[in-house]
Amino acid sequence: MQTQDLISRLATDLAPVSPNAVSRALNRALVLGLAGNTAVLAGVYGIGSDMPEQMLTAGFWIKLAFPLGTIAAALTLADRLARPGYPSRRAWLKALAPVAAMLAVTVALKMATPAELRLRLPLGETGIGGLAGIVLLSLPALAAAMHAMKRLAPTRLALTGAGIGLLAGAQGVFVYTLFRPASPWFMVDAWHVCAIPAVMAIGTILAPRILRW
């Protein structure tokens, strides 16, 4: 077979790719991931009976601002990482900014509280249990994002894994926050924030194996 014949056969019936194909794939993964996270939440923890009442309060939405902002920025980052040759430094800065800001708030709250009162701070479920719970809730979102990226064209596989790990971790924090709607709106738990780098690490390890062409 001549080279030209091979090229002609490969090019037969090819349709142009929609310019929104990447965004659609990632948005679909986002929806599937949140659905999977919610299913795990309902199966493992259950849904709070007072959630409808809590949704009518300002504090409920203030608590959700951090994970929602991180999800939005991480979705843009994932879109960049899925396109070979696209710069992603600015997208990384925007996606990591909410995480860094929340860690700063946590430290500031801790330092501003007198030592004898720090143990009384309503910091929620701290410790390995809380971190592990968020990581568990993030796994369906990570799997959905990996599946979407597998069908796209990322070339920086480890970075891509970290990026979609950031997206999945933020989804896990979002769903975990829904699990605890009655906690104070000013509750800041460093373990919740640290769960995001943990999911990023999982994504960094798995992506070169799963996304390899």
Automatic annotation (TrEMBL):
Record carries keyword Cell membrane: no
Pfam families, per the entry: NrsF
UniProt keyword Ligase present: no
Residues spanning the membrane: 29-48, 60-79, 91-112, 127-145, 157-178, 190-211
InterPro entries recorded: NrsF (IPR009495)
Keyword annotations of the record: Membrane, Transmembrane, Transmembrane helix
Protein name: Protein of uncharacterized function (DUF1109)
